[in-house]
Design a protein that fits this description.
globular; two-stranded antiparallel ribbon; 5 helices; alpha+beta; single chain; about 45% helix
Length: about 190
Amino acid sequence: MVCRKACLDRFGEHAVHCREIPCFKYRHDFVRDVLFDVFKRAKISVKKETPVNFLTDPLEGRSTLRPADVLVYGWVGGKHACVDLTGVSPLVGLTIGDFIVGQAALKAASSKVAKHERTCSNNQHAFIPFAFDTFGFLTPEAVDILKRVQRVMHSKVVSPKSQDVVFKMIDFAIQKELAAQLVARLSFIKV
């Protein structure tokens, strides 16, 4: 069985990162929704899938870039922060060299920063990549966001049970959608 680009291997590695498989976008959206919910539970002012006017092409009069996955109001020195989620498989490009934990997520985050940071900065917004891999690795920027949300949550809701609930919610969202994506492909993969 093949998608348009590659054979689906028997271990399901390609199914984890293929953008042509319908569940790929759903995983991104599910993690985005959980992150949005985490902000809301901490009573931090946010909006998801927010179009930002400075990302429009004046000639076309329409957005040339995707909306911010999550827009956090007043997050960085009073500036709004455009948070862009990116989920990747750590196995992408594995044949090229040695496996380095987090390398794929770090590369994806760097690519997002190069693509969007200047435009956001020029328009008085901060840009924060929230990159993760399907093994659960979070980039330093993602960890910083979650730690800050966790501190805010703890200052408003003091409970020993909520010690690391923020990280557990994100980790569960990543793993749940990865499992759903793999299970959806099982019936199509011949062993």
